[in-house]
Amino acid sequence: MNNLTVEFFLLGFQNDPHLIYFFFCFFLMLYCATICGNLLIITLVSTSKNLHTPMYFFISHLSISDIMLTTDIVPNMFHILLKNGMYITVNRCITQFYFFSASGVFECFLLTVMSYDRYVAICKPLHYMSTMTSDHCVVLAAMCWVLSLSIALMDCITISMLTFCGPNIIDHFFCDLSPLLERACSSTYAIELEVFIMCFLILFIPLTVIIISYINIIITILQFQSNISRQKAFSTCSSHLIVVSFFYFTLLSVYLFPKGEETLNFSKFLSLLYTVFTPLINPIIYSLRNKDIKKSLQEMIKKCASLATV
Question: What is the pLDDT of residue 134?
Answer without folding.
Answer: 92
